[in-house]
Input
Amino acid sequence: MPTGFSPFRKIEPGRRAAIFFVILLVAQFILMSLHARSRALNQSMPRTAVITVLYPLQKASVFVFGGIGNLWSGYFNLVGAKRENQQLKEENDRLKTELLKRDGEVGDGRRLREVLNLKTTLPAATVAANVIGGEGTPWFRQVTLDKGSLDGVSLNSPVITPQGVVGRVIAVGPTAAIVQVITDGNAGLGAMLANSRANGEIRGQNGEFCRLDSISGLNEVKEGEQVLTSGLDGLYPKGILVGTVSQVLVGSGATLHQISVRPSAPIDRLEEVLVLPPPIRVKVEENLKPETKTQKSK
Output
């Protein structure tokens, strides 16, 4: 019984010999062509055969190793791009910091110009000072200045900014002074409404706003109206801006208005201030004394 199947077994022996003969002729023709080509190129047949056999392998290796090289090159390019992005980010952060610094310098210069411009309109004894400390609360009730008695700062000297009243000096040393700001719960000053000229008193509330007391319910008060120093307290010169009316609970003829005032000076972010000379107190009794005969003879 046959163990395997072969198509040549069905071919007659005579035809089988003819087929083998044709195959040998074709093989001989191929070998002769390769030999002629190799002689034309001055190459040996074995070398040509080797090249013919190895060419597909070489092509495949070039493809594989070329892909690996491209992948490796892409990796290094990615690392380089990441490093470049990091450098650009650091440069961007540096430029942002420099821009913020310059903006701060511009703001400092603007505030300093405002303070100096205001100083030129005030008495010669006015002292420009920097705020170097304050209480650790959102709304400072006391601040410390870098100027003291050696610089001409005196007790009860009014302290202002170009925007308005800050407070008064309550303690002074040779090189520093402490200021009670108008939002302090114990602070007070004479004030008046800019429109009606009605006089009252500003009281601190230990917060963002102050309170304007002693304004009759018969006086018209509007939100947004300015509040000025009245000069009647003997501490602050008349006519300095204190703030604006932020809220009014209207009174009547028998009751007073309840008025909330927002300070115009930036109490929560003070940097530069002006210290005015203390008020000059004159005893009225001395001016009312009758003239003596000696004074009349003069």
Q: What stands out?
A: Residues 193 and 227 are 5 Å apart (CA to CA). Helices lie at 13-40, 45-119, 284-287, 293-297. The mean pLDDT is 76. DSSP finds four helices and twelve strands in the chain.
